[in-house]
Write a structure and sequence with these properties.
about 220 residues; alpha/beta; six-stranded parallel beta sheet; two-stranded antiparallel ribbon; 6 helices; globular
Length: about 220
């Protein structure tokens, strides 16, 4: 084997070996950055949360016409904030398709428990947390909010709200998601994507999709 070929193979081997290390370092660094940015703004209890104008409930899985356990936890937290006078309105944001009617189910769940329909803001086009926060700011004019989400999602949600221009805090709903290695790995990757999308401002603004507004 000629020397030139050997050098190329060596370089290729070194690059291949370095890529996983670089990838892991990127994930760890971006997650640390997001956690630092959100530090001190995630509360464990709705009773400890300072007053804000709006509670934002990002969508999650529904089963039939009922919220699945994690989404129910988010809605129950928002309801506590509303009944306690800590928020004036609740923004529910999620997919609303024939296969998944998140926003419709969330809105119905809140109305059934006495929330004035006029106090429920419904966004049916929040496919991702980033979309939810951008649309909350650009379409619903939300400037300050309490985000109701699971504890493992709180930092990423606050970070995305910050970059949408929302003065945000969160209630980290207690869950067992932190015990799932697979879920934590997925959340770490989502956080890395959120960091880079926000840093480089990838993707269209929610304002560009105002015509997609419907009843999430």
């Amino acid at each position: 084997m000629r020397a030139g070929v050997r050098r190329k193979l060596l370089r290729a081997t070194l690059v291949a070996a370095a890529l996983p290390v670089l990838g892991l370092a990127t994930v760890l660094a971006s997650n640390a950055w997001v956690a630092h940015a959100a530090a001190g703004r995630a509360y464990a209890s709705a009773a400890d949360v300072p007053a804000r104008s709006v509670a934002i409930v990002p969508g999650a899985r529904v089963y039939g016409r009922q919220p699945y356990v994690h989404l129910q936890g988010r809605l129950e937290t928002a309801l506590m904030l509303y009944r306690g006078g800590r928020v004036k309105k609740i923004l529910v944001s999620g997919k609303d398709t024939t296969d998944s009617s998140e926003s419709a189910v969330m809105s119905e769940w809140l109305r059934d428990r006495g929330v004035d329909p006029a106090d429920i803001l419904v966004d049916a086009s929040g496919d991702r947390t980033r979309d939810t926060m951008n649309r909350a700011a650009d379409i619903f004019d939300v400037t300050d909010a309490v985000i109701c989400t699971q504890d493992v999602n709180a930092a990423r949600s606050i970070y995305l709200a910050d970059h949408a221009g929302i003065d945000a805090i969160a209630v980290g709903v207690e869950s067992d998601l932190g015990q799932s290695r697979r879920y934590l790995q997925a959340e770490a990757l989502k956080t890395t994507v959120a960091f880079f999308e926000s840093f480089f401002r990838w993707g269209p603004s929610a304002r560009d999709h105002g015509d997609a507004l419907a009843t999430r």
